[in-house]
Specification:
Elements (H helix, E strand, L loop, with lengths): L37 H6 L3 E3 L2 H76 L4 H32 L15 H12 L27 E3 L6 E3 L8 H9 L4 E5 L9 H6 L4 E6 L10 E6 L3 E5 L8 E9 L2 E9 L8 H16 L3 E7 L10 H12 L3 E2 L13 E5 L6 E5 L11 E4 L6 E3 L2 H12 L5 H58 L6 H14 L2 E5 L8 H12 L8 E6 L11 E5 L2 H9 L15 E4 L3 H21 L11
Parallel strand pairs: 9-10
Antiparallel strand pairs: 1-15, 2-3, 4-6, 5-6, 7-8, 8-9, 10-12, 11-12, 13-14, 16-18, 16-19, 17-18
Helix pairs in contact: 2-10, 10-11
Protein name: Endonuclease/exonuclease/phosphatase domain-containing protein
Organism: Helobdella robusta (Californian leech)
InterPro entries: Endo/exonu/phosph_ase_sf
């Protein structure tokens, strides 16, 4: 890194009327040092002068190291969180393993009891060919279905009865009059005054009212003072703006000015001598919204052209002071629009472009977001955006007469704001007046006693090897990222094992529940169908690892297109060895594709395939029309047909709604 050196005349005496750089002993020309600074420097050892060359090195090192240290702290925190999460997963993993072992022991006991019951079931089958319990149950189900149909019919009749006295009026314009008055006038006109007001029980508009705020909730900036003014419009309160500008403001930002045109005479009436302005109008609606920036002509200012945003109005003005530039970003979000992700996206896009310019940035405006609410989602998102761009908000008081901190003023670290004051709301409008200040000088820094003691060591250093520092930090960051990747992979493996264990536990619980239900039926004397249910449970257990693939064209080898489909559905997570057996369900026919029965190695593979069955639509044209299904038993097929028929009936009755059968068998 090159060092900025300056030669000085030997023997020059540094007196009370001059200053010296606290790093390189450079003495600046006397005319470049403000006279009001010298007494403060002679009386305060914590205030030091830094020349331009040392200032670049000082700010460069500070800018380089601070984000790196902050990022390392964040990475260490993430590693700690991942380690804690991994420990918790391992603990859950051990507990689930114990549950699986316990369920396995219970299933073994049940299997032994099952073998003992087989002989009893054979004798029971010979004695009872038909069960009165089954007949009575069918009768009860039929009665329940009839009751449901009658209940549904009564509900429809009651709904029609409730609505027959109602009238809906469309396209009724909202006004300051009450809705009941408007409805009464219409109904009396239609019935020749035969309907009285007492006959109208309730009048209600079916469209919610929208309230558009047209007040000027205006953050106002100043290199000396920065304010927030509220007025109905700059046209109505130009005298107020004139008084504020005459009171010593340097830069004045107004929102929702409603001025309609840059040639509006009220703008000229609002400006004292020596002031100029820049403005923007709301597209397609110039007499609503609008922003104006008043500033003293002594400042060089130009408006940065920005595109039209959908969620807010914005004006960006670049002010050029001596040896520095400051961007003022004024923003006003209409209260008639909801806060959406598009608002935060557009705001982030603007801040990214302004932050890339590297100059000072001040953001001010009416955001209409309650940042005083710590748990509010919109408030959290806005403050996170501010933090990511190193913006510090200085408004911490209520700015609206109904409560709420809606107007914000924030700046980057190189433009520190001070003397923030929020005047009471209701004086100029429903928003309070905000005043803040910032300095135009950047060469003077205040040092605490600790930094003063360290400064000689910094001064004696002739070179700061930033490349070496960057390489060391890069290596440290790379090592941390490798550790994080390792922990992430381990966490994914543990989560996959946990999913498999939960699936196995769920299946075991279902089997145990079915067997317990069979025992209960046997104890209550309704055991005629126990053997059938046990056989059905065994059949379902055999089929739970199977899939049926329909409409797949027959060829020399079926496994290749099957794996193509499975890889597409699961993103190559199902291996070829997971397919245990492939069988065609029937004899080969010329114009008919026989369904395929596919046996898999486990329920996990089958569930993974069926969970992503919606991806079948994006297959190649050759495989379009192919569709997988569960391997259902006869009872499950009958139940599915019944559900489909019920859905069709409901769809035909409603006429408007679409009914579908979803979920596993």
């Amino acid at each position: 890194m090159s060092k900025d050196t300056r030669s000085t005349t030997k023997g020059i005496k540094v007196g009370v009327n001059s200053v010296t750089c606290c790093f390189c002993d450079y003495v600046p020309p006397a005319e470049s040092v403000p006279k009001d600074i010298l007494p403060a420097m002679n009386n305060c050892r914590n205030l030091g002068y830094i020349c331009d060359g040392c200032l670049r090195s000082f700010d460069g090192l500070k800018t380089l190291t601070k984000p790196i240290l902050d990022k390392n702290d964040e990475i260490e925190l993430e590693i700690k969180k991942i380690s804690e999460h991994t420990t918790a997963l391992c603990k859950d993993f051990c507990e689930l393993k114990q549950l699986v072992v316990a369920n396995g022991d219970r299933l073994n006991q049940i299997n032994s009891v099952d073998n003992t019951l087989d002989k009893s079931f054979d004798n029971f089958k010979q004695q009872m060919n038909e069960s009165w319990t089954g007949i009575v149950k069918q009768g009860i189900d039929a009665v329940k279905n009839d009751v449901k149909i009658v209940q549904r019919t009564l509900e429809v009749v009651n709904t029609i009865k409730e609505r027959e006295n109602n009238v809906i009026i469309f396209n009724l314009i909202e006004s300051n009059r009450k809705d009941n008055d408007s409805v009464s006038a219409i109904l009396r006109s239609l019935t020749d005054n035969s309907i009285k007001d007492d006959d109208i029980l309730r009048g209600k508009l079916m469209i919610p009212k929208l309230h558009v705020q047209l007040l000027l909730n205006s953050p106002v900036l100043s290199s000396k003072t920065e304010s927030c003014v509220g007025a109905k419009s700059v046209i109505a309160k130009f005298n107020v703006v004139y008084q504020l500008l005459s009171g010593g403001l340097d830069i004045f930002l107004l929102c929702e000015t409603l001025h309609g045109s840059p040639e509006d005479p009220s703008i000229q009436l609002a400006m004292p001598p020596g002031f100029s302005f820049l403005q923007v109008l709301r597209p397609h609606d110039p007499y609503h919204g609008g922003l104006i920036v008043f500033f003293k002509k002594m400042f060089k200012a130009r408006k940065i052209e920005v595109p039209v945003f959908q969620t807010f109005e914005a004006i960006i003005v670049e002010f050029s002071f001596k040896r520095r530039k400051v961007f003022v970003f004024g923003i006003c979000r209409p209260g008639s629009k909801l806060v959406t992700s598009l608002f935060f996206g557009e705001l982030t896009s603007v801040l990214e472009h302004l932050f890339a310019l590297g100059d000072g940035l001040i953001v001010a405006g009416d955001f209409k977001i309650h940042i005083e609410r710590p748990g509010d989602t919109h408030s959290i998102n806005l403050l996170e955006i501010f933090d990511s761009f190193q913006l510090t908000n200085v408004v911490n008081e209520l700015t609206h007469n109904l409560g709420g901190t809606l107007d914000l003023v924030a700046s980057t670290p190189d433009i520190p704001l001070s003397n923030c004051r929020v005047d009471p709301s209701g004086v100029y409008s429903d928003h309070g007046l905000i005043n803040v200040s910032f300095s135009k000088y950047n060469n003077f820094k205040w040092f605490c006693d600790t930094c003063n003691n360290v400064s000689p060591d910094i001064k004696s250093s002739t070179e700061i090897d930033t490349d070496l520092l960057a390489k060391a930090v890069g290596r440290s960051k790379q090592e941390l990222m490798i550790k994080i990747d390792g922990l992430t992979d381990a966490s994914k493996i543990i989560e996959s094992e946990l999913r498999n264990i939960r699936c196995a536990v769920k299946l075991n619980d279902e089997k145990l529940s079915n067997i317990n239900h069979a025992f209960d039926e046997m104890r209550t004397g309704s055991g005629a169908n126990v053997e059938k249910k046990l056989n059905d449970a065994t059949d379902i257990e055999k089929r739970e690892k199977n899939l049926v693939l329909f409409r797949l064209a027959e060829g020399d080898g079926d496994k290749e297109p099957i794996m193509t489909i499975f890889n597409h559905l699961t993103r190559n997570e199902v291996a070829e060895k997971a397919v245990v057996k492939v069988t065609r369900l029937g004899k080969k026919q010329e114009k008919l594709n026989i369904p395929l029965l596919i046996s898999l190695d486990g329920v996990e593979s089958k569930n993974l395939i069926m969970d992503n069955v919606s991806r079948m639509k994006s297959l190649d044209d050759v495989l379009k029309g192919v569709w997988p299904s569960h391997d259902l038993s006869n009872d499950q097929r009958d139940e599915l047909k019944k559900l489909i028929n019920d859905a069709k009936k409901q769809e035909s009755v409603s006429g408007y709604f679409l009914f579908k059968v979803r979920g596993p068998p």
